[in-house]
Amino acid sequence: MRRKNQNIHEQFKEEEAKSMQFMQKLNQIKKSNKESKERTVINQHKLEWFKKFRQSQKREKQLEDELNEFISKNPNLTTNYDESKYLHNQVESYQLSTNESSKMLSIMPDSQLDSMNQGGMDDIETSMQSDNKSTIFKTQPNEVIIRTRQSNIPESPIDRFSMQDLKSEEYHQSIKRQDFQKQLYQSVFGLKSYINSIKEDFKTMKMKPKAAAQIKQDIERKQQEIDKLIEQMKEGFIEIGKQLKSEMSQVNIELGFHRQELAEILGFEDQVKGFDLEFMTDESIDFLDIYAQFLGDDEYCKMKENYQKALGTMHDINTLELERYRMNCPIEYEELLQQFGQQTLLRFQAIHDSYLKQGKTREMYMQRLQLEFKDEQLKKDDYELLDQYYEHKRWFKQKSKALFRDWERDKKDLKEKAVRLIEQEVEENKAKLMKELELLKTESQKDQKHKVVEEKRKDYEEKMKIIKEIELEKKRQEEEEKRQKDDIQKKRAEEQKQIASSYKQVKKEEQQKKTILDKEKEEEDKRKILEELKKNKDKIDSIQNRELEKVEQKHQLIQQKAMAPKLQKERLDKAVENYSFRPQVEADQDRLIKETAAREIRKITIRDNADQVNLFQNPGYTIDGLMKDIRYKVSTALAEAGLQNTSYGQQVLKGLSSNVQPRSDMMGNKF
Questions:
Q1: Which InterPro entries match (predicted)?
Q2: How many domains are contained in the chain?
Q3: Do 294 and 429 lie in a common domain?
Q4: What is the pTM (predicted TM-score) of this model?
Q5: What is the pLDDT of residues 158-183, one digit of tens each?
Q6: Which of 43, 186, 258, 422 could form a Cys-Cys staple with 252, CB 3.0–4.6 A?
Q7: What distance in Å separates the CA atoms of residue 497 and residue 492, rounded to the nearest whole number?
Q8: Is the four-CA dihedral 294, 299, 303, 305 of positive or negative sign?
């Protein structure tokens, strides 16, 4: 009972620790979700515009054409990312050049230092300055987007908000660009000042050779400061790269169309039944924007915002589920790398995939691991830890596939529900308009109301035209989706036919080869049998002679057995004839009925209990004495269950033999 209570207490502690870790990670996820929601509130209209921009193919083509024309007219323009990358490469090349020059200066003798060309250093400095001026911060990509958007796309309430967001973002980016430019110029100015001071130190070394040692120390100190500045510049560039990556990843997460992350989890080579990446649900309902004029901008925007909020909550639930699955991992990959190394992990993964995924037994799998890692001296706990990690990895992949499948299904249902609600609202408004028209028709007798009726009829016709255009557009989209699906299904059917035909051909060739090999093997076996018969002919003849002799002996024995009764009868007749003396004894029935002497002795011993007296002490073991030992109990139970010779039974007996000590009355005995 104590052991059970201890085990329960330990399990409770482990579960409590896991729950604490889960709560910590959940709090972190909540914080990140809050921050992402704050960002989405700021960038909501911008994201809607991006979705609309990506969905409408015609507008996208126009924008791409005009952007290409703008770039062809101004070929020197580059993006901020290209500029930062170019500056990063420039700084690295400059650092390499300074390090090489410092090494060369430390190796050169004083005579070669006097012959250094000062003009070459000045040329390098001027070229670096010209390159920096020609490449730093020339482009402003948001301005290009704003110009093309103003020239091509008509304004709507959503467009006004997105334009304001783009302009404000472009203004903030220009301020950040100016700050970064100032910091960069300051660092470059510091580098130039150190380079000029190093030049002056070389001149003083020429003029004062006695102070060369001290000047060299100053030069080394300045070179170290130059390295520090270059490292600071590198860190700045790395931070800019990280910010760009984080912003791009944030946009991709909010849009929900980042297919690379989905491909890493699902894998394009391992498509799930009922879930193809070609038919991923499109979240946007921008094709219903034409209803905004019919329902009103405010009402339509509210419905669209509610749809976006529902998508956001679904996304949060999905991320929480994935994080919950990921938390079940027994150990992180970085800890495994530090503990075992990359090579051992790759080898272990290869064995795991080849044995467990192919359906082989676990005993073979563990034996293969022990043979593979015999030199590394891994423990049983290490094997179990690595096995748990890769099993969790496989389990996580399956769970994430199922989760993404459900997520896509829920998104599709939500989209259909939102479209259905909007269409119901449109139908209700349409019914109201029809009723109003009927009322106006009944009151059309008055001349003053004829004009109002005509105006309403015109509005109705315009709205009906819009509805017809929407229906036609929906039919066209459905036909196009159906055509795409049919094309994909035809392609897949053709591919499957080709695979089946090639598989049949391969199987046929293999069967032919197998039949040829079987025939050759049969002929070879016959030939070997004939050769062996020829070699063993003498032995076979001798064996046959022996068998014939045995058969003859058996035949003689049968004849003897058949003659045996006759011979016995003759022998008995002779015995009767030769029997001359016959005893003369009277018949006594009492002697036949009474007990024998042995029976009388047995009765006496039973009355005296002499058969129950232990005349000699039993030096062996009794069954009760053996059953007091837990090892004997467990071994008999395993033998009755048929598990004594299995690996499980041997492990149980080993554990008992290592933990259980023999009793004091059995210390002198030997098994």
A1: CCDC148/CCDC112
A2: 4
A3: yes
A4: 0.28
A5: 344 444 455 566 666 667 666 766 66
A6: 258
A7: 9
A8: positive
